[in-house]
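name: query_chain
kind: protein
chains: 1
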Amino acid sequence: MAKKMATKTAKKAPKKAAKQPAPKPPGATDAIQQLDAEFMKAANAKKAGALVKAFYAPDAVLMPPNRPIVEGRAGIQSFLQSLIDSGLSGIKLETTTIASAGDLAYGRGHYTLSISPPSGAPIQDAGKYVVVYRRQANGAWRAVADIFNSDQAAQ
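structure:
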């Protein structure tokens, strides 16, 4: 009888809570999709500083068409601010391919860009881009190389 009571008591004992694993940092695909959303939000809000801080690594490079390479966050912010100041009225990114290996990833896609200059006709552009991302020490993904070019003929 004592054996049966011990068995019943053991069955009623509360179970120890299992340790929950630490939340897994977002994978490259989720992170890049989120970075795209933040890029568009900041660009469309005309906030070059917020865009650069959220999207680019400190040592990033931007390779715009028909321009020299732009190095570092300060240079990229200056370039993007001049784009905003020229009348940027909207940008849409659509990353169609994302792949990763270890701490590196890339995204390839196409963009549409609208500029309404203070003087002159509105400009619509469409093109493509490749962005290389590196996982930072804190686990966040940031762009380290960004190149884009227009599908339209040079004017």
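note: The two ends are 96 Å apart (CA to CA).
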